[in-house]
Structure formats: structure tokens, C-alpha cells
Structure prediction request, 267 residues.
Amino acid sequence: MAVDFLSNENIWFEKFKYDDAERRFYEQQVNGPAGSSSHQQSASTSSSGPGDQNELLSRISHLEVENQNLHSVVADLQKAIFKLESRLNALEKSTSHQPSPVPPTQKVEPFGVPSKKVELPSASPAKKAEPAAAEEDDDDDDINLFGSDDEEEDQEAAKVREERLRQYAEKKAKKPGLIAKSSILLDVKPWDDETDMAKMEECVRSVQMDGLVWGASKLVPVGYGIKKLQIQCVVEDDKVGTDILEEEITKFEDYVQSVDIAAFNKI
Prediction:
């Protein structure tokens, strides 16, 4: 029954009409906003008057002036660069033609005898002075009158050298050597909280030795009301050792329980 109904309908045979109508509908929808926009653009262009043209002309003239100013600045910079290059070329040419200065030579005189030429005994025979006869007149070329003087000068220079070495050795022997010292921080612990800490510090400072110097001290809490004595001293390593120092302090058995080294630094 349904098939007979559809066979009587002619909508499928006239589909091109519906497609054409649909196409015209969408064309109207698309062309409508475009036509309105073109109309607005034409209205805006017609509304722009001679004022906008004057503004454009003023801006163009202003840009031309700025362009001319930039051209002048660039020209000035090019001239300055050309002048600098010419000056640099001139300086390079002048420095290349000047000869390098020769450092002056200095004549070193002997330390002992500044006005005479001295040769040490260890010098090789090939480096001896030329014969003194070359400095005399032409008539005395074959006579060496200064041979004995050279020997006396060598002996005198050797004596001066030995004397200066002896003086240097004596001066070095008299100079005191470097004394090695150490800074020690000691922790002296009492027996209990009833120990007289002032008396204990007095006993510790009563230890006197050659090369021992006592420094600052303070009481540091340990716990349960007990405090330990922290005292600093400076000792000479060759004269005072840590073992001897601890042994001397622990002799005060009524006050001192033990001695520990908290810090040890070389000076």
C-alpha cells in the first residue's frame, strides 16, 4: 500500500526545481551582506572630504623634511669617518718608518771595587783582559807595564769577596731563627658542681714554664649544674709539649678531674 502511494508522488522526478530554489535562496543570503558592505564603503569614501587630503599632504611634506635631515646627518658621518681613516693611515705610515729604539747598555762594575776591572779566580783564562799595552802610545806597544797590577787587583778582589762572605755568614748566624708556636684551647673538667672553679683556675694559671703564656678563659656549662673551665694558652713547640702541660695541670687532684685539648692551631 505504501509503495503504491510513493509511486503516485512526483517529488523525486522534479528534484532539480528544489535544488534551483535552494541555490537562489543561499545566493540571496550571501549577496545581501556583501551589497550592504559595498554600499557602506562607497558612503564612507564619499564622506571623506578635502580635510583628509590636506592631512595626507602635510604628513608627506613632513616625511620629506625628515628624509633631507637624515641625508645631511649621514653625509656628516661619512666625512668624519673619512677624516679618521686618513689620520690613522698617516699615523701608521709614520710609525712604520721610525726605527725601533735600541735599549741602552749598562756597564756593570764589580761589587767590591767599582772603579777597577776584577776577575774572580774561577774565571776561565780565555776571558782575561786584553794587554794593557794596547792603551799606551805606539812607541810602547811591546812593553806590558801593568801585568803585576792585574795580579794585585785579583788578589785584592778575592780578599774583598772573602771578607764580605765572612761578614754575611756572621750576620746570618746572629739573626734569630723562626720560633714555632701553637695556640691551644684546653677543657679542664672539675669533679662535681661543688668544686671551687675560681680556685681551680688559679691552680691552672699557677703552672709556669719557659715558653708558656696563658690567655683568656671562661666557664662553659656541661650539665646538672657542672661547669668546665675553658682556657687558652700559647706555647713554643720546642719548649712546651701538650703531654707535659696536661701532666702539670692534673697534679691538682683536689680540683681537676681531667684535661682535654679542645683546639690546637699552629701560629
User: Anything to note?
Assistant: The two ends are 123 Å apart (CA to CA). The first helix runs from residue 2 to 8.
